[in-house]
Design a protein that fits this description.
Blueprint: H1 2-5, H2 9-30, E1 33-41, E2 54-61, E3 71-73, H3 77-85, E4 89-92, H4 101-104, E5 112-120, E6 123-133, H5 141-171, H6 182-199, E7 203-210, H7 214-220, H8 222-239, E8 245-250, E9 253-259, H9 263-279, E10 281-283, E11 293-294, E12 297-303, H10 304-307, H11 314-334, E13 340-342, H12 349-355
Parallel strand pairs: 12-13
Antiparallel strand pairs: 1-2, 1-6, 2-3, 4-5, 5-6, 7-9, 7-12, 8-9, 10-11
Helix pairs in contact: 2-5, 6-11, 7-8, 8-9
Length: about 350
Amino acid sequence: MRHRRGETLDRLQPKLDSFLRDILAKANEFVPSESGAILLDDPRAKMFDRETNRLTVIAAFGEWAGMLGEDLSAAQGLSGEVYATGQATRCVVDEEDGSYTELSARGITVRSLLGVPVVLGTSVCGVLLLANRWGRESFSQEEHTLIEIFASYISSSIQNFLDGLRARELAQRDDLTGLHNDRYLHHRLRQEIRRADRAEAELSLVFIDLDHFKSINDRFGHMEGSRTLHLVGILLENEVPPDTICARYGGDEFVVILTGIGADGAAGVAEHLRDKIATTPFVVDKPDSEMPIYLSASLGVASLREHVAPGGRSTRRANALIRLADTAMYTAKAEGRNRVSLARPEPPPELQEEVS
């Protein structure tokens, strides 16, 4: 579930990659080398079998640069030794050493290596490798010691960097569902409207309200109600298209921002979500319930191009888009619930001024 929520390195990858490249460049300043790389493990894989895990090249320079994104065995060569022991190590490589067949097969020349562990908390999560010391046959003991000292800086810097990223990520998230919160929703919606204007692209919004949700709290208690909202959050993230922004608006209300999708496409997404909510059992195995309890939802859809009057700042149009989708959702409620309703177009500015 943490993987779906993006709380692993996967979500932080672009910013982390840049940060690790800076660290690798600093290591090369201390100990100039022909090539170098930072390799990280898969934290999920090592939970089951650390020895068969793979180390992925996250940052690299020199001959290693062509290996970005590729994997090496975590059980072979100096990188495997450093990863397994958590100790900095250096060596001169024999051309016939079979431990480096993965490198030689890629055309990587290795004469000498210096490796240090990358540690998060108390766990080794990767390796920093420098290959082929400039102007020398091998790395010296002094350089070995220097990189060992640098290793502690690497580990604490990465930990602080990830903690900072995660703190910012959590500040944008709803604690209960893991979806974005309403504050982030308003900020992101204004941002997406400006982006859609520049690209002359479509943008739509789906407003979702669970039907009769209060009955879950009344019948099974607020803890079960909270668990149900959490599961609805997971369902929404799993079922929306890629690059979709999902947020909990408040209570049992959710909002989905669909970038690049017009009114018809958004109505199709909303209908898919309505069906998935209606056919998913959320409350099961309760003492006073002989069968699973199902929910339904009422959904309103509004499109920036088809329903929001042109003109005005992004803040006005963002508020209008939410209001129109919210009103459409209440129309779905009034028409019997468990359905999708499209918004009515907003009057042109001149007519709005007359009405006001």
